[in-house]
Amino acid sequence: MDNKDRVLAMALAGIAAVLAVAVFWTRSLSTQGLEALARASLPLDEALSNGKPTLVEFYADWCEVCHQMEPTMAQLKQTHRGALDLVLLNVENPLWEQELDQFQVRGVPTVLFYGPDGTVRGRSIGLRQPEQLEAMVAALLRDDPLPFLNRQGATSTVTDTNPSQGSVVGPRSHGDGAA
User: Fold this and answer.
1) For labelling alongside 16, which of 8, 51, 159, 177 has CA 20 to 30 A away?
2) 63 catalytic per annotation
3) Which domain range does residue 13 map to?
């Protein structure tokens, strides 16, 4: 290997290292974003009883679609501060088992829309584009019928990486009905 090839190899290795750090950093920020939104959420019972419309998202840290929607959720929280409660619940947290059963969460992300009286106005499963979520929230705030509820958006994919140990994708992974 001549000097030119060594320089090229070192440059490529450097670029690969920078890209790896960037991917890791971006992923950690995204997880922190979901967790930060969840920590800033009102308790669910308080949000559903305080007279404000409420958007509840059931998410998972491993859910790529949830991470894609996180900036939109943060924007909705900021844009509609004081008029809308946003509650994020991590499906991996055993504290929410009762809510997962009660609200029949079978896929992530699942977003539930509640009116000011605490009644469910709609349910959305899967990826929603920012403009769709904004239109749904605007309709909720006006007490109008919610658009886009008759379609399921894209969800994250889950593969069973170790079938020899008998692990099975759970029913709350992505609404696929596996048990």
Assistant:
1) 159
2) yes
3) 1-158+169-179
Report residue 157 as tokens: 């994919």
Average pLDDT in the chain: 82
CA distance 146 to 60: 25
Neighbours of 133 (CB within 10 A): 21
Instruction: Examine the residue annotation and report whether 4 is marked as an active-site residue of this protein.
Output: no
Active-site annotation holder among 34, 48, 60, 66: 66
Check 55, 63, 84, 137 and give the catalytic one: 63
Residue 71: give its domain's CATH number.
3.40.30.10
Q: Express each pLDDT in 59-117 by its tens digit.
A: 999 999 999 999 999 999 999 999 999 999 999 999 999 999 999 998 999 999 999 99
143: left (phi over 0), alpha (psi -120 to 50) or beta: left
In a domain, 163, yes or no: no
Give the pLDDT band of residue 160 (cuts 50, 70, 90): very low
